[in-house]
Amino acid sequence: MVAQVTWDPEDTSQPGFVAECRRQSLLVAQADAADEALGAFLDAALADLDEPSLTTSSSRPAPATPHRSAGRRPRPR
User: Fold this and answer.
1) Which of 21, 42, 48, 64 is the most exposed place for a label (fewest CB within 10 A)?
2) Are the C-beta atoms of 67 and 50 separated by less than 8 Å?
3) pLDDT in tens, 2-56
4) How far apart are CA 33 and CA 38, in angstroms?
């Protein structure tokens, strides 16, 4: 019988924590870079946040949303 090790992401003192974070981050970055439609989707979602709503159910103005373009992550090269 082989013992299976469970990785606890909240135990930052665990040996290998930094290496596992890096491994998982690289996997996510590779998946994002391989998805050609993701950039267009994220740009459209951001534009949707910046556009005022065209339909309102009341006479009150829609609440302002903060501009989020400064928080966009750079695309991997």
Assistant:
1) 64
2) yes
3) 555 565 667 788 888 889 899 999 999 999 999 989 989 989 999 988 776 665 5
4) 8
Number of domains in the chain: 1
Please, where are the H alpha helices in 1-77?
17-34, 36-50
List all residues 6 or more positions away from 32 whose beta carbon is below 8 Å from its beta carbon: 38, 75, 76
53: which DSSP letter? P
Residue 33's domain spans which residues? 15-48
CA 54 remoteness from chain centre: 27
Higher-pLDDT residue of 67 and 23 is 23
d(CA 70, CA 77): 19
